């Protein structure tokens, strides 16, 4: 064991101090040293020994004592040892300062240890300013403080003096290397080369120097990319010092970087060896941790990295350690801890270029924790370094989509897909994003993803197939959609259902009504040992397939699918709702409500279920309940669900039109409220067609036809695009507008198209609108045919029969009213009237067991009137037939007369010259007089007929203004109602009937008047009917209230004017006959004519 | 089994054709197709060329909604919207009688297999009227009772009887109504037996299987065709596939298939062994109001024939094999 011998003062003896047995208390030694005035180098030796043993306090104590002023004084001429002591202290404090700095505790400039170190070095310099070891110490201090330029200067001073000073050379190499580490890319190489140069010089100067020199050379070469020579250097180090950890680690890293299994194994062996030699090398620890991360030994990872963190000072090294730790937690799904460590790792890094991985990890964790903004900035850091990193791009795209910035998201995914056209994930996400905005592009992207995955030989995810299926479905490409869904579902019980192998087994027909709630079929199957597996991820596809089957009208199989879903997942609300919708479509309202009840049991706030319940209740005429349900639905979604809002809007609209609560004020309030709700939906969703339609209706209600027409047209165009949006209402509404504006032909076209396009011509309500339009356009036969079709479709709707009766009656009346009619026409009129009578009398008798809502008296009146008309028509018929015959006779007569005239003229011509001129003159006079008389009568006619014309115009206008407006309102109401409220249609039809009824008044009176004029002998009877009509008139007035009675008054005014013009037309017709008086007509006819003329005179007076 | 289009006649009537029935062959002529239309006429057509046999026969006010032929082939009856049934001699077109029982409307009608009784669906009278075919007297009124579990009925469409069908043995009679219920009667005792439930919309047509008197097919507006065991009250199967109302159903004489006509403008052929639609004919352009298989019999006529008539005024004839 080494010992130090302290010479005893003034003697030849020495005190032996065994270096491994230094006393614990340094004071003992100091006392000896001081007492014996031992040479200073002994002080140093002892202090250094203490340091080596880790007893820094004693080391410090001795050196501080050794540099005290007394010593300075006493050993004033022993320069070198004094400097050495000071430098040792300086180096020691530098070391302390370095530790502080690495631990990040103190700013280097305020580090007390550095200050102390400087003080000692300065003292040393004062003793000898040229001592190279002082400068070297100062240089090292500067390196420690990161002041490389000053360090460079310090080392340079030494090297200028002695170019082969090894420590200075090493220092300079170190300075350059560090500068290289910190410099920008392009200067790095130069600095490493400089560093390498200095290491080489050091090695030349001192070939047997410590392995550290070769290590430096190795690092420089490594940095310069000369890996083989770096490897040689490290291997040389290991030859010299087989336990050199740095060299081992360096070699291990290089092995690992070969990225080959063998290389990695070699590398890990070296790492392990290094770890065994020295368990505190952070690099080795990190790499080992990394390795164990991949082998899944997380416990080791944590231990290793924690050690690494404890021993490491290098920020990047620490960043790696934190990263390893974070990654370990990340893989254990402890996202919070992982996030913290990623963050710690990121905090160690000044530039993302140095070490980008923790940013990626951090981004992932932040994404997981739904901190999208932070995640976005993390991934953007990654993209700064690797702008084409697909994973990060996809992450960024995903975040954008989560943040609702769809355009950016799509753009990002497009970029990712462009960079790597083989990345199925990017196409998948791109496709999913595009689904809502651009279905065909979405389909393309998803198909690409599908093909890529298929090519890769992987299993195609069910979601992808599901989405592709849905897109085909929406495109209307049902066959491909079905194929896709089948592929998504694979093998399973559903195939047996599709093949029809499992069918609804025989059930008692009384139980059939609840079939959609019946799951016993599946229970039975399970009991029979058939496994009914339905993995959760296939449920959506199965549901969509069922939707497709519904679209293909295979509702039986669809219902089985839905029920299978419910059997396995009784909480799947959508399946309940679809079953309910199917039940509703089959008019099984009770079952539908029960199914919705099931859905509400699962979630009593489900807005869809509530909305549907509301519409069912409305169907059931349960207004208050319906409103409550809609309200609940609206509340459940914080008013964000447009459907509920719309439904409430519709509710208000219907409420406004309820006939039993016709309060003007209430109606206006409801309308206003409806408009408000529609507008609200429109502001939230600009493209909501239903809201637009609603707004259009409200506007139409208010008479703003042009605006509403524009709206309807736009909605109609918009709705044409999708197979899922079916908006027949808007067609009907448009037709209503045309109707209200008097464009009957257009309205007819529109109604017909709507019927054909949406209802397979089965909707009687629209047929009723159609017949109504024909009625308005006075196309009686079309009107009648349309009504007959409607009756055929809805046999139990007696209102339609009534309307058909009215149409026939109206047709007959108008034919009879015509001034010219053929016998055929009259004959068909008679048949029509007979039918009308039959229809009305059947209605009247049917009321015995049906309350179809007609006043029996009213029907009775119709029957009577038609019968009367029939009687009248018979006469007309005879008259017409007679007239026809007479016409023939007349023609014959005329021919004979003209022949006779001819003969007479010839005879007269012969006599002409012989007859007296006076006689001729007399005759002439007579003719002139007659002509004058005729002229006067003609004048009379003219005035009366112009009178008639203006009145007629009046009437039309009035009807447009009042009647037209009011009618419109009913129509508009009807169109919406059809959608939600079929039963209410009855009220509507009654109104319709009522309306037709009051229209009927006019022919009634007219014809009655006709009768008076034409048939003297019938006068009495006609008077009766006139009275009957009048009686009914007053009835109607009671029903209709104020505004309509005004219309009636107008009407009556018109019929009065008719009375005036009716007879005035008669003479027109009869006048030619009047001129042919001479040619001889039947007396009867003459009498009729004269009677008519007499009437004219009376009326005029 | 399949259908093959043989011939179509466009504008066979002036208006929508609503009714079709085969008049069985007699010794002097083959089976004829009888059609009725909104144009207030019935017309007779000779297969397979679908040539008009006689000028249109008038006297059906407001349009013909149903037609039926007597099993002997001598007589036929047509119901029209004015609620009367005109019975006429097929070959001479002479009216035999006109039946009406006001205030009852008339809808579907059917002669019993022996030809002694004519059953007429009575519409709003909630009954089926039975007429004796020798005296043309009303012999019975089979009233449809309300089912036990009565549904609320505010629309007045409650027991509006639309359609009738005789079982092949003539012992049972079934009728379909507006609200979807199907009532089964024991004819001999003139007694109501039970309801067959499952439909909630109008049942416009129904037919018994010609080979199994228990099996009844119903066509309903709910787009489904149901197959019932009429005796056991049970639903054997439901067939879906039509996109709109099923207006008419008829069973093939061999009992292996049924054909349906729908307002979705198609005629479908269903294989009863699998209860799936095996064929869909899309030649019509509007509602198909009636489909009818030609009854077997007649001299040298073996081939199966199916006729369909439509709102598009056309008649189509198919070969069924």
Automatic annotation (TrEMBL), chain A:
Give positions of region: Disordered.
936-1101
For this protein, the record's Pfam families field holds: TPR_16 (PF13432), TPR_19 (PF14559), TPR_8 (PF13181)
Kindly state a single biological-process term from the GO annotations of this entry. regulation of DNA-templated transcription
Annotated InterPro entries: Ctr9, TPR-like_helical_dom_sf, TPR_rpt
Bias (Acidic residues) occurs at 988-1019, 1032-1041
Q: Name the residue ranges with Basic residues bias.
A: 967-983
Annotated Gene Ontology cellular component terms: Cdc73/Paf1 complex
Identify the stretches annotated as TPR repeats: 132-165, 211-244, 356-389, 390-423
Residue ranges that the Swiss-Prot or TrEMBL entry lists as coiled coil: none
Any idea which GO molecular function terms this record carries?
Answer: RNA polymerase II complex binding
Question: Sorted alphabetically, which keywords does the UniProt record give?
Answer: Repeat, TPR repeat
Q: Which domain of life is it from?
A: Eukaryota
Name of the protein in its database record:
Protein CTR9 homolog isoform X1
Species name: Ananas comosus (Pineapple)
Q: Which gene encodes it?
A: LOC109707530
TrEMBL record, chain B:
The WD repeats lie at 10-45, 57-98, 154-195, 196-238, 239-280, 281-321
Pfam families reported for this sequence? WD40
Q: Which Gene3D superfamilies does the UniProt record give? A: YVTN repeat-like/Quinoprotein amine dehydrogenase
* UniProt protein name: WD repeat-containing protein VIP3
CDD domains with a match to the protein in the record: WD40 (cd00200)
Species assigned in the record: Ananas comosus (Pineapple)
List the InterPro entries hit by this protein, alphabetically.
Answer: SKI8 (IPR051510), WD40/YVTN_repeat-like_dom_sf (IPR015943), WD40_PAC1 (IPR020472), WD40_repeat_CS (IPR019775), WD40_repeat_dom_sf (IPR036322), WD40_rpt (IPR001680)
Write down the PROSITE patterns for this protein, in alphabetical order. WD_REPEATS_1 (PS00678), WD_REPEATS_2 (PS50082), WD_REPEATS_REGION (PS50294)
């Amino acid at each position: 064991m080494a010992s130090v011998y302290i010479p005893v003062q003034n003697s030849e003896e020495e005190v032996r101090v065994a270096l491994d047995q230094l006393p614990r208390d340094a004071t003992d030694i100091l006392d000896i040293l001081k007492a014996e005035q031992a040479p200073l180098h002994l002080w140093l030796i002892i202090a250094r020994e203490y340091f080596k043993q880790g007893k820094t306090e004693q080391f410090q104590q001795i050196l501080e004592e050794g540099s005290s002023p007394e010593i300075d004084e006493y050993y004033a001429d022993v320069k070198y040892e004094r400097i050495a002591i000071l430098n040792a202290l300086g180096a020691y404090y530098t070391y302390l300062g370095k530790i502080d700095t690495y631990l990040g505790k103190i700013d280097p400039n305020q580090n007390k240890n550095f200050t102390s170190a400087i003080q000692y070095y300065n003292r040393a310099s004062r003793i000898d300013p040229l001592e190279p070891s002082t400068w070297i110490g100062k240089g090292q201090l500067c390196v420690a403080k990161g002041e490389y330029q000053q360090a460079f200067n310090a080392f340079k001073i030494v090297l200028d003096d002695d170019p082969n000073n090894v420590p200075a050379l090493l220092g300079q190499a170190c300075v350059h290397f560090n500068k290289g580490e910190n410099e920008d890319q392009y200067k790095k190489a130069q600095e490493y080369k400089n560093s390498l140069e200095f290491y080489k010089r050091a090695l030349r100067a001192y070939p047997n120097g410590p392995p550290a020199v070769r290590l430096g050379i190795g690092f420089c070469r490594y940095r310069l990319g000369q890996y083989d020579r770096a490897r040689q250097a490290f291997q040389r180090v290991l030859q010299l010092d087989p336990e050199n950890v740095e060299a081992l680690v360096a070699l291990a890293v290089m092995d690992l970087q070969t990225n080959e299994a063998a290389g990695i194994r070699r590398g890990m062996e070296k790492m392990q060896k290094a770890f065994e030699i020295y368990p505190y090398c952070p690099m080795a620890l990190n790499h080992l941790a990394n390795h164990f991360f991949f082998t899944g030994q997380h416990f080791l990872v944590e231990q290793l990295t924690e050690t690494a963190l404890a021993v490491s000072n290098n920020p990047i090294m620490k960043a790696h350690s934190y990263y390893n730790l974070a990654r370990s937690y990340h893989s254990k799904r402890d996202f919070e801890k992982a996030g913290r460590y990623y963050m710690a790792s990121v905090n160690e890094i000044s530039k993302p270029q140095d070490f980008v991985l923790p940013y990626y990890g951090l981004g992932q964790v932040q994404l997981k924790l739904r901190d999208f903004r932070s995640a976005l900035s993390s991934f953007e850091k990654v993209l700064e370094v690797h702008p084409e990193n697909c994973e990060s791009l996809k992450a960024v795209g995903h975040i954008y989509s989560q943040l609702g910035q769809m355009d950016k998201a799509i753009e990002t995914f497009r970029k990712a897909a462009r960079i790597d056209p083989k990345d199925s994930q990017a196409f998948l996400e791109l496709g999913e994003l595009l689904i809502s905005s651009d279905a065909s592009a979405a389909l393309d992207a998803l198909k690409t993803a599908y093909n890529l995955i298929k090519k890769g030989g992987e299993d195609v995810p069910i979601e992808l197939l599901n989405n592709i299926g849905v897109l085909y479905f929406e495109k209307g490409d049902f066959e491909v959609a079905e194929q896709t869904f089948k592929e998504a579902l694979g093998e399973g019980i559903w195939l047996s259902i599709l093949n029809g192998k499992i069918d609804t087994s025989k059930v008692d027909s009384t139980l059939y009504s609840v079939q959609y709630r019946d799951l016993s079929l599946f229970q039975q199957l399970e009991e029979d040992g058939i496994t009914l597996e339905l993995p959760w991820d296939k449920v959506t596809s199965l549901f969509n397939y069922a939707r497709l089957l519904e679209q293909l009208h295979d509702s039986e199989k669809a219902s089985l699918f839905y029920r299978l879903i419910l059997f396995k997942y009784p909480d799947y609300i959508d399946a309940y709702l679809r079953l309910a919708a199917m039940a509703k479509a089959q008019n099984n309202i009770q079952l539908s409500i029960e199914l919705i009840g099931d859905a509400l049991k699962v979630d009593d706030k489900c807005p869809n279920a509530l909305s549907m319940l509301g519409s069912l209740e409305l169907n059931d005429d349960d207004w208050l309940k319906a409103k409550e349900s809609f309200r609940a639905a609206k509340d459940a979604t914080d008013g964000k669900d447009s459907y509920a809002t719309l439904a409430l809007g519709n509710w208000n609209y219907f409420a406004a039109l309820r006939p039993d609560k016709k309060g003007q004020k209430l109606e206006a309030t409801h309308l206003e409220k409806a408009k408000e709700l529609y507008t609200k939906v429109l502001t939230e969703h600009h493209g909501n067609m239903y809201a637009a339609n609603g707004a259009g209706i409200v506007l139409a209600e208010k008479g703003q036809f042009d605006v509403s027409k524009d709206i309807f047209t736009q909605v109609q165009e918009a709705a044409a695009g999708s197979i899922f949006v079916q908006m027949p209402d808007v067609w009907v509404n448009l037709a209503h507008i045309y109707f209200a504006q008097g464009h009957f032909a257009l309205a007819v076209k529109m109604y017909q198209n709507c019927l054909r396009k949406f209802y397979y011509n089965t909707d009687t309500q629209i047929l009723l609108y159609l017949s109504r339009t024909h009625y308005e356009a006075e196309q009686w036969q079309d009107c009648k045919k349309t009504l007959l079709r409607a009756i055929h479709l809805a046999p139990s709707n007696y209102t339609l029969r009534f309307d058909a009766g009215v149409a026939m009656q109206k047709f007959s009346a108008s034919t009879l009213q015509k001034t010219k009619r053929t016998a055929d026409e009259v004959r068909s009129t008679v048949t029509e009237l007979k039918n009308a009578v039959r229809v009305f009398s059947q209605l009247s008798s049917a009321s015995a067991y049906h309350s179809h809502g007609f006043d029996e008296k009213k029907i009775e009146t119709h029957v009577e009137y038609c019968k009367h008309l029939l009687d009248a028509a018979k006469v007309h018929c005879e008259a017409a037939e007679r007239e026809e015959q007479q016409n023939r006779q007349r023609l014959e007569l005329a021919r004979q007369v003209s022949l006779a005239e001819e003969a007479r003229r010839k005879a007269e011509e012969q006599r002409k010259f012989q007859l007296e001129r006076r006689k001729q003159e007399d005759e002439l006079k007579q003719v002139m007089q007659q002509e004058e008389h005729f002229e006067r009568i003609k004048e009379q006619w003219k005035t009366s007929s112009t009178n008639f014309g203006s009145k007629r115009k009046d009437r039309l206008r009035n009807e447009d203004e009042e009647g037209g407006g009011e009618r419109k309102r009913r129509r508009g109401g009807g169109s919406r109602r059809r959608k939600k409220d079929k039963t209410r249609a009855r009220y509507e039809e009654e109104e319709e009937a009522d309306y037709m009824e009051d229209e009927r008044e006019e022919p009634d009176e007219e014809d009655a008047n006709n009768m008076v004029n034409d048939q003297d002998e019938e006068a009495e009877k006609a008077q009766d009917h006139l009275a009957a009509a009048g009686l009914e008139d007053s009835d109607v007035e009671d029903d209709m209230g104020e505004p309509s009675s005004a219309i009636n008054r107008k009407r009556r005014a018109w019929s009065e004017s008719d009375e005036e013009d009716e007879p005035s037309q008669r003479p027109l017709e009869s006048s030619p006959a009047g001129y042919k008086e001479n040619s001889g007509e039947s007396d009867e006819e003459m009498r009729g004519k004269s009677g008519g003329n007499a009437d004219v005179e009376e009326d005029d007076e | 089994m399949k259908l093959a289009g043989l011939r179509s006649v466009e504008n066979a009537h002036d208006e929508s054709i609503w009714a079709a029935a085969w008049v069985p062959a007699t010794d002097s002529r083959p089976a004829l197709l009888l059609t009725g239309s909104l144009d207030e006429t019935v017309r007779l057509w000779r297969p397979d060329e679908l040539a008009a046999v006689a000028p249109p026969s008038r006297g059906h006010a407001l349009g013909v909604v149903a037609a039926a032929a007597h099993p002997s082939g001598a007589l036929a009856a047509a119901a029209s919207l004015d609620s009367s049934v005109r019975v006429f001699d097929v070959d001479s077109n002479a009216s035999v009688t006109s039946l009406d029982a006001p205030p009852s409307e008339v809808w579907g009608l059917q002669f019993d297999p022996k030809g002694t009784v004519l059953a007429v669906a009575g519409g709003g009278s909630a009954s089926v009227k039975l007429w004796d075919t020798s005296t043309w007297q009303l012999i019975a009124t089979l009233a449809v009772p309300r089912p036990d579990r009565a549904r609320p009925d505010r629309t007045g469409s409650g027991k509006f009887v639309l359609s009738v069908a005789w079982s092949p043995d003539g012992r049972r009679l079934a009728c379909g109504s507006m609200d979807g219920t199907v009532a089964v009667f024991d004819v001999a005792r003139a007694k109501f037996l039970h309801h067959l439930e499952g439909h909630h919309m109008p049942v416009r047509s129904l037919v018994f299987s010609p080979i199994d008197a228990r099996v009844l097919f119903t066509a309903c507006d709910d787009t489904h065709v149901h197959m019932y065991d009429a005796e056991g009250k049970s639903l054997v199967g439901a067939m879906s596939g039509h996109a709109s109302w099923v207006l008419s159903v008829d069973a093939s004489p061999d009992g292996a298939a049924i054909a349906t006509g729908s307002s979705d403008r198609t005629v479908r052929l269903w294989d009863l062994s699998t209860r799936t639609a095996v064929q869909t004919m899309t030649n019509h352009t509007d509602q198909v109001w009636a489909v009818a298989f030609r009854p077997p019999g007649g001299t040298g006529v073996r081939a199966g024939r199916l006729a369909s008539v439509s709102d598009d005024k056309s008649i189509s004839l198919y070969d069924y094999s």
